[in-house]
């Protein structure tokens, strides 16, 4: 039974809001595509839904399923989140596991060719066509290839009957009749090879070696979707056509449509454009994917089989061992799901113990257990951990001893109850938010259910099934479920180490065969904690002012201690509240020598504790509540953020306020964060992307030491005592804004604010020198700055950047610059990928910080072959100069404006988008003053405005960075025994 947790799309900077005091006209428009008399789907089967055959799982009747005589199956559903959008998925049951030896990579190559040219699109027309309809490339229009399937995706905004019909027609033509010509192959093979090159390096070598070990003897062991250089370069139009004819058949297709339309209309359009599809030649059964099998002579009680030790200099140590069972297509019924839920609770208990051990003297940094069914090839229980030191055997014994205890004795009922409470909160939350689940996510659920050969269920059904298992959540039943998790046909393991000679396959094999003693040290038998027993923040306070800000009921609330709050109630998102606390100076608050404590704070500040609560206490107190605690450092402010619900809102506010009022300073999280940073540091230099992650932010800020990734020497010198000194100062400084947006009870929320943030002491003002602290931008030189990496010699990366500005006075300009960067990005993609095949994913982005007056930047980034670096810089500089001299064409502008316009119209229903735009408005009037023009700033943007901005910012030479292979860098990993 497939059920997937939903997450709000809250990370985009372009946020839509209704104009002051009046909604956008689009909100009022009726865009539902209603069924007409002509919409009479012939093959809909409401009484025989194909995905539920053979199961007793209650049918989710919001879905309409159908099956055509040619074998195409479909699932359609009405959904108005977001309004006016239709989500289309076409899943083909053909992935890399279906490839013959000389076809490796063909499934993924074909995915590219389908978008290149087809019966319904000329060469290179598809992406631009959907951009003109408002579908952004990559998010709304894309495709994915896995070992078992290839899926084509379209989220069509502002859909009407005409665009829906035409888009389904075009997708049908793309999938059924791509133009697989030698010319198109010559265009796409270099792009796929560039994608392969970008994925190359240590991480891919480790992934491929791990897969080869875990799935030894099976097709999955040697069939990565990216393929091989030899088979891709050897691909011919005839060979790719043969692959398409063999697998792209109606019997292998599932079409999903979800959106703002009557299901009958959706079903009718699917039948209209897919019913005539017929396969070529006889139907071919999928190959046998094989089963995991223990080698001859393996012990039945501890069937350790294949192991591998992979040496990758610079990579952090990690060990994974898997208990593998054959994948079996199950009967997806209620009892099967009850058993799964019992195993999930058992897994949660084991993981909680492993985390306890890691926090309290364990020899591993982290460890986790998970069960997964991999590519219809194995049903496995996977145990992964990172040793703290070179003594990997001690860490392995430590992890295995915790698991051995879980297998030997039943858990305490209190441990089970905590795990059950966490699941129950999550399932209740899913029910509450099901009415706002996006149509794209519902469509993806069907695709994933088909992939794992299971049914789907409504959130209500899942909650009911979970609660029906309550009588079985007993120590004995959880013990039995735990034992089942760790039983299998074969145990396989992979160890990753940066140091040659540190371990051998024989040593790893022997360590797994050696029995370990059960250790109960990680059991969690502590009593529950009640918020009522915690110390109060201070004396509760009433607000001194409440005033509307003029945006659909948003209210500013002020307290005598200087705290200000923004409240917005939205009843269309039941059970969902976001709390965002902005306080202090952000990056401005750190001195030049305190960058190491910024890095440690990002990892350890929350876990250092609150008042009497340590890490484990925080976990326990949140077990039966919807609470979360995220921390971010931004240019001009620090942020606490959590997702909660009204009944837990005061507790969420308490955690945040208490962190400011009574922080505690447990040294263990700091030491653990320091160990993590030390383990990870060497990996940054092993490929271009790692070097970018390590150094780009630092370089773009003029070499400001606060933004440098701390070196191992700096980490070694950092202390918990100094961590406390730095963060005590920062937590005490600067104004506080608390934003509470979502499904709130306004009066209860204000009362809760008064007992928490209103009860805080007066804050220390930010020092003048902190307020004035700014960042600089590097001077552009005649030659690029050069950094090196120690990875493959065919990998390089490049950046070209121009300084922008900052501050809320420039909000309107920042919106226009966002469009300009997208125009730039489209041109760069066309030049480097589509025409030259030199790079897979070049992109351009702009950033305009609103809380500080400096630090904005527009930059282009690409991963590319070293000898093509000059071509990238030439292409980027040429585009910049041309945009400044001539501006964009009307079509280029429309291809970025329409997706932005449609995103704005779709996004406006979610409170998170309002929050992203209004954050800071309690102290900064510009956030409200420039709100009314947000739609028109995008919708009415002109080519002249784009040219003017390009002249202002892009006419100067850009600062350039290139990351190239170090001389003599190793290009391959090694294996302890095989030389890999």
UniProtKB/TrEMBL annotation:
Residues covered by the Peptidase M16 C-terminal domain: 236-421, 723-897
Keywords: Hydrolase, Metalloprotease, Protease, Signal, Zinc
Domain Peptidase M16 N-terminal: 79-221
Family annotation (InterPro entries): Metalloenz_LuxS/M16, Pept_M16_N, Peptidase_M16, Peptidase_M16_C
GO biological process, alphabetically ordered: proteolysis
Keyword Protease: yes
Domain of life of the source: Bacteria
Family to which the UniProt record says this protein belongs: Belongs to the peptidase M16 family.
PANTHER family attached to this UniProt entry: NARDILYSIN, PROTEIN YHJJ
Protein name per its UniProtKB record: Peptidase, M16 family protein
Organism, scientific name: Aurantiacibacter atlanticus
